[in-house]
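Posted in: Structural Biology > Protein-Ligand Complexes

Title: Requesting predicted complex, magnesium ion in pocket

I'd be grateful if someone could produce the 3D structure tokens for the following input. Sequence and ligand are given below.
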Amino acid sequence: MKRINDSANTGGGAIHDASYGDSAPIAALATPLAETALALIRSSGKDALTLLSTVFSRPKQLLTTQGNSIIHGWIVDSKGQRIDETLVSVYHAPRSYTGEDGADISCHGGIATVRSILHVLHDAGFREALPGEFTFRAFMNGKLDLTRAESVMELVSAKTERAREHAVNRLAGGLEREIHDVKRLLVQVLAGTELLLDYSEDEGGAEEGAGLPDRPLAEEALSRMRTLAASYRMEKLYHDGALVVIAGRPNAGKSSLFNMLIKEERSIVTDVPGTTRDWVESFISIKNIPIRLVDTAGLHASFDPVEQLGIERSLSLLAAADLIIYVIDSVAGLSAEDAAFLRNHASRPLIAVWNKADRVPSAPDGYIASSAKTGAGLNPLCAAIAATLSLPVNAAQVKTIGIATERQKACIDAALAALEEALSLADQQKPLDIIAPLFRDAVNALGELTGEVSTADILDVMFSRFCVGK
Ligand SMILES: Nc1nc2c(ncn2[C@@H]2O[C@H](COP(=O)(O)OP(=O)(O)OP(=O)(O)O)[C@@H](O)[C@H]2O)c(=O)[nH]1
Ligand SMILES: [Mg+2]
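-- Reply #1 --
Done. Output follows.
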């Protein structure tokens, strides 16, 4: 995205001085810098509307119009030259995305036009927004909790319908509510525990083995947190797509199988072993499961340095794969290398494919016979892929409240670990004064998840992963 600090800065500080957490007037292009019909430039912050009015052909209207209204006018430079004809959506704090005063400028999408408007805004006193800064401000101004702020980024990067659906659910506050509910249960248990501690202190010290008050509430919180923790793998797979890697010896028919699965002649197929050098990927959906399918270089001992590099890449993709499709050339038969590969990967999710079945039809047990030539075996292969990934195929089976980011997973894991330890100590009849702090840790970890408890460092790291204009 275009930076607007490439001329002398006259506004709210150069980009390298900028930091999250101030309310300086910011502006950024929210759409791609390309030849498009329209583009959207966002602005927000202290005096944003006053500054904008200095470069707008109808300043009085801009400043007196109601919030949430659109006005028509020209962006003009300091000499009064017209830059572009625009529609400006005006927002008044707190009724805006960021919670601040601001305006969205809908202009023409020409690259030069957008650049000129950004320059004019810069000269008027806006600085370029940092990545995610609009959403950061929305969070700071209490418009979104952290789970909803993160869902904005998920929504931007969602590649599948289900990933979008789940992100929207989080944006609507689904995860935030679940975390609040679970936290409420824990706070109740904690309150009961503290009360008992106070009481027993009055009575002369915490009683050993007094038993955890409201234990069923803690158990319910535990079970709901475990469900959330378990949802991560699936959420990640739905967001990123399951990584399915096609591997095998050179010439086994990997690229032919890849093309058959993606229904497109993408990967080069020849009868020369070693055709595929670098890996080739495609996003597809098999039985509603989003899949990042990768075709790789054939595995064998090679002295060709280019091929060696390709094979190294195949190996690192294999290490990360959620599922391996191992292709065997039935005409050549099961080689010693094939057998060794299958042995070495016995503990991994793997489907062995007996390819070129049009020539050698009888596949050994445990192999899926396929022919990239005739298309035979495609349905059993797709069924096996769906079954091995063991993701629910039916939308109704998919829980829509889940956790979506590593940060959220780490918070849930921390909360779970504290709660599990607390319950185990309670089982051992340990005194409540060593159990209570663990409940507090769990509550704090959940508070961190939604952003009620947060450190500036975490926020900086999190929001800097957004794109500019978000
Ligand atoms: N008869 C028959 N030939 C096939 C089949 N699949 C692939 N082939 C042929 O086998 C040869 C190798 O196919 P590729 O798909 O390039 O094999 P690969 O495993 O990608 O090979 P490398 O990229 O060199 O590792 C080509 O001549 C294909 O036409 C099949 O199912 N039946
Ligand atoms: Mg190939």
